[in-house]
Sequence to fold (374 residues):
Amino acid sequence: MVDVSCVFDGGAIEMVHAPSASAIEVRIRADNHSEFAQWFHFRVAGVRGERVNVRFLNAHACTYPKGWEGYQVVASYDRREWFRVETTYSEGVLALSLECAWDQVYFAYFEPYRSERHLDLIALCQTRARARVRQLAKSIEGRPIECVTLSLGGRKNVWVIARQHPGETMAEWFAEGLIEYLIESEDALVMRGLELATFHIVGNMNPDGSAHGNLRTNAVGANLNREWAEPSAERSPEVLGVRQAMIEEGVDLFIDAHGDEALPYVFVSGCEMLPNFSARQRQMQDGFIDAFKAASPEFQDKYGYAAGRYQKDALRLASKWVGDRFGCVSLTLEMPFKDNAHHPDPKVGWNGARSRLLGRAILEPIVKTLLAQA
Ligand SMILES: [Zn+2]
Fold:
């Protein structure tokens, strides 16, 4: 019997109809407390040796319909290796097709990052000499907001946060790559970085949304990356706790990692629209971007968001609030849900492994920027 299920960590889909493997129809589910809809993650069972066709009937009504153009769904049999499958988007319907090798197959919007993996990483970190694990807040539903703090006595403070938008799982893969590099390596670059700065890395800002299979919001429907001006214990305790630690400890460089549904590129969005953006900030931001381009073939600065005019609303975003408050290099990093058109890999598209490598590669521009400030 063909069966569709999503009752697991990060699972999300609405079943419509599954009379046979080749005629499955589903709807993409909205976040548990808001209208945002784009993330999906589900399993189809009972399909060994069959052609599986899945039609996502409401794709056109999702939050980012442009995200489906040129997009390929990811699939996995063993939940470790994820590959892209033949996908079309036409007349408002997203449709995938896969000749299924095994009894069960998982499909997702992007390679998931499971909560068990998060717990494993935190557990590993706490046993390493140069790392501390701190709980900076509790989510609405009581999940810890954990910060891995890596230090060899560096006096500056680098903050990296990820996954305010829980469906942007590439952000946590990215954070994992940076954490693993910093906790284990004896590289000159790592040593230099840790002599200059203490690194505070929050790999998952939104564990409730992650568990619910939300795209963008927490358990009560708050978009955390619009909460930085006035976070509250009732609506956004995740931001409130992390922001408080930043105020107490200071910020000399900040990265907020995200995924972009539509643009097939890795890029950053800076603080140039802020009214008090200084010439020094401009110079440091430009220096960071040049150093990042040199450190990673994945990163580019030709395609990205147009720097809009400043509006007071901008301070609701993490990187703008930090850039304004601390006058430092403060960037939103965007990675693609699709492939990276700057450096394509059609078999897997952009994925967890590439995000991890990018997390490693970003250390060089961070260290160069800290050295330029010293
Ligand atoms: Zn985002």
